[in-house]
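Practice problem 4.
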């Protein structure tokens, strides 16, 4: 692994560690916020529980204020159970808080899972880096050892090369000396050849002279083909034998001189060998030579083994570099995937925040609508003097007396609308009664009916603003109907049913 790849790996690990630290800090902040929210929820639950007990106690005290019958149907204010309504509202508030808590827990769990994944990745990369460092240290140690062995081998080889060059120079010197001696020998040999030829010529001339002398000294009766004791043929044959013998002697002299030269050369070589080896024992010199040859072969074998191990180490290093590159590519791909997932989650968070903002705006609009309806109902309530009806109820101890002195809100708006309808009916009855007393009931009855309808229309005009999420709570139903949205017709029908339960009629003629 080169320093650049090592530096890139270190930078990648440092970046991942910084990101892991950032995510860990965010997780701690999220846990602290979660703990704060849990503490706040517990405080709110305690406060709600306390308020709930107070409301229950006040409702019980209010219900027990005018108890005249043991019938449970008349022990409630106008057939409604404030305790159950408060319980329903409390349950809705608790469910809302539980939903928010669940979302916060889900976000916390998601953050924890992401942090755990990042920690696992960091641990894996750290373990990989430790393994790479260990392998790198082992390879460097082996390479240093191989380098030291190679240095020893190279030093030995250098010494052997120097010794070989020394012997080669000595050999060349010996060869040059032998060449000089051979040239000198050839020169002496040529001189001896000339001398022998000259002696042979002189010998032939002397023999010829002797033959001529013998020829003149012989008698006339002698044979012409004979010269002294030998014939001419025998003489020629003897001459040939002498020449052959002379050549044989010359060759033997030459062989003898060559043998002496070789002996002298061997003596000089042995003297040089003894001087170099520092010993005169041939067995010891032969043993040293064999030992040197074995050592040279062993060094050659060791060099071959070291080369093979070096090639193997190089292959492992190339494979390790390929694995590192593969891991880096895998890390980059996973990092890109994690960044993409993070962007998607951030976009989801932004979408959720935008949806929450829209819901808050919608809730504010609905709250404004409810407040507008409550304001108009309150104006109509005091416009037609409905508080007198409540005062009469409170004096008689009847239902709906608990509304006296309260303002119109989203919880009691239906009761106020019922009282307004009852007051409108009472006004219409009083008006019809007055017309009957004046004797004009026959002509004005139809007109009174139309005026009644117009009055009902004016009542409808005062409550034209329909709430978008107005809820009707029935004391005899479960909480599953608490999220229904009712129109004005459903509200009027519910008010009519309420009056029928109370035994009243919205329009009762005499």
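Answer key:
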């Amino acid at each position: 692994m080169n320093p650049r790849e090592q530096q890139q790996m270190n930078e990648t690990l440092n970046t991942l560690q910084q990101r892991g630290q950032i995510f860990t800090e965010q997780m701690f902040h999220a846990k602290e916020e979660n703990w704060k929210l849990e503490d706040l929820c517990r405080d709110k639950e305690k406060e709600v529980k306390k308020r709930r007990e107070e409301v229950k106690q006040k409702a019980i005290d209010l219900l027990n204020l005018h108890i005249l019958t043991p019938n449970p149907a008349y022990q409630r204010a106008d057939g409604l159970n404030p305790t159950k309504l408060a319980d329903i509202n409390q349950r809705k508030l608790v469910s809302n808080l539980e939903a928010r808590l669940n979302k916060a827990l889900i976000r916390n769990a998601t953050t924890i899972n992401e942090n755990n994944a990042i920690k696992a990745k960091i641990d894996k990369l750290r373990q990989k880096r430790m393994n790479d460092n260990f392998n790198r240290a082992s390879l460097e140690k082996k390479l240093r050892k191989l380098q030291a062995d190679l240095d020893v081998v190279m030093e030995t080889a250098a010494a052997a090369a120097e010794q070989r060059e020394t012997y080669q120079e000595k050999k060349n010197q010996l060869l040059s000396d032998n060449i000089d001696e051979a040239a000198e020998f050839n020169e002496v040999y040529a001189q001896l050849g000339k001398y022998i030829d000259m002696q042979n010529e002189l010998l032939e001339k002397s023999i010829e002279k002797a033959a001529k002398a013998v020829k003149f000294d012989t008698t006339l009766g002698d044979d012409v083909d004979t010269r002294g004791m030998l014939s001419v043929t025998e003489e020629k044959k003897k001459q040939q034998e002498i020449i052959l013998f002379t050549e044989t002697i010359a060759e033997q002299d030459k062989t003898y001189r060559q043998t002496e030269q070789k002996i002298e050369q061997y003596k000089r070589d042995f003297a040089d060998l003894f001087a170099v080896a520092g010993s005169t024992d041939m067995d010891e010199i032969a043993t040293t030579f064999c030992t040197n040859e074995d050592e040279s072969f062993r060094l050659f074998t060791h060099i071959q083994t070291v080369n093979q191990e070096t090639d193997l180490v190089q292959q492992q290093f190339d494979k390790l570099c390929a694995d590192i590159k593969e891991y880096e590519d895998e890390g980059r791909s996973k990092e890109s995937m994690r960044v993409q997932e993070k962007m998607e989650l951030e976009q989801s968070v932004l979408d959720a925040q935008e949806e929450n903002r829209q819901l808050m705006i919608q809730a504010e609009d609905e709250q404004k609508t409810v407040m507008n309806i409550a304001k108009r109902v309150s104006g109509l309530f005091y416009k037609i003097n409905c508080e007198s009806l409540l005062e009469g109820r409170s004096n008689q101890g009847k239902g709906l007396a608990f509304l006296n002195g309260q303002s119109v809100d989203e919880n009691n708006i239906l009761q106020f609308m019922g009282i307004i309808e009852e007051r409108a009916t009472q006004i219409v009855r009083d008006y019809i009664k007055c017309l009957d007393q004046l004797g004009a009931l026959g002509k004005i009855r139809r007109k009174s009916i139309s005026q009644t309808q117009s009055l009902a229309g004016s009542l409808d005009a005062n409550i034209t603003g329909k709430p978008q999420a107005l809820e009707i709570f029935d004391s005899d139903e479960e909480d599953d109907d608490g999220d229904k949205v009712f129109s004005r017709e459903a509200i009027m029908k519910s008010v009519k049913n309420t009056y029928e339960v109370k035994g009243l009629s919205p329009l009762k003629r005499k």
